[in-house]
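Request: When convenient, would you put together a sequence paired with its structure tokens?
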Amino acid sequence: MTAPAQTPHDDRHVPLALLKLPGMGRRRLGLAVARLGGHEPTTRAEFGEFVSAAATALKFHAPTAPDLDRAWTEGGRLAEACTRHAWHLWVAGRPDYPAGLARLPDPPAVLFVHGATTSAPAARVAVVGTREPSPWGDRTARECAAAAVSAGAAVVSGLAWGIDTAAHEAAVAAGGVTWAVLPGSLDVIFPSSNTALAERIVASGGALISEYLPGSRPHPTFFIERDRLQAALSDAVVVVETGTTGGTMHTVRFAREMGVPVHVTFPDGVEAAPSAWLETLPAPQQGTWRLLQEGAPRITPAQVPALVGAAGRAGATPARAPEHRLLD
């Protein structure tokens, strides 16, 4: 298969073509994208020259001519698909790439985005928690999200059932911006029951975000990878009910590793209970109780605006550049 010698320039074409090269893992892709330096090939021949030079510099086997042809052609098709779906890309090194992602040891070089991000509030607060919240947890998540929006922040969550759904719905209802980070591609909404919510998020000025190629269905490891992005895209994390294991605890771990503040909600009158009472608590509150015991500050919806103010000030500090330390 021979690719056309030249295609109309689309700034998504080259990153997507690199993504389609065989053996192009996250680390190698990040290093290759970093070498572009704003000077991207516009023809198949220039693309081949760039990849050959990158292979020499990065010490990997140069792709064959058929591999380069396929990648260049498929990159163009993906760019066209992005145009049809009104998706854009966050590409590492470009001005719109979120600085918070640079805190990750394995920042994604390319992310697919559906919706508005350039006009989003500067402060972002993740509201996360269990898929099976109590009525108190559902209500508290909604109140925290609404309070964050009222204070001028965007709400970040993962579009899952339970707390995530409550947070997104409340942010939209309050007329605010919310970002949903997906465990699959933008065209495979999970859970499918939240498809209408995903559409409302975009229509209200928010965004859906994914690092996976179109057609990618959720996979167990994708949920954990999604959790790290939730933490990296946020200036603070608010945990509303969680068990002692699961996705929320992954988000907490990633946040702590990056120095993102983690706050915990908890019902009144229970926080003074001794640790021995842990097993008597409802399962969705055992994880939040443990986080409190470990020193995570307790927060109420009324205190969220102050958290937004502090998060916004902290988020104004530039993050370091991506280093792409994770091996393929």
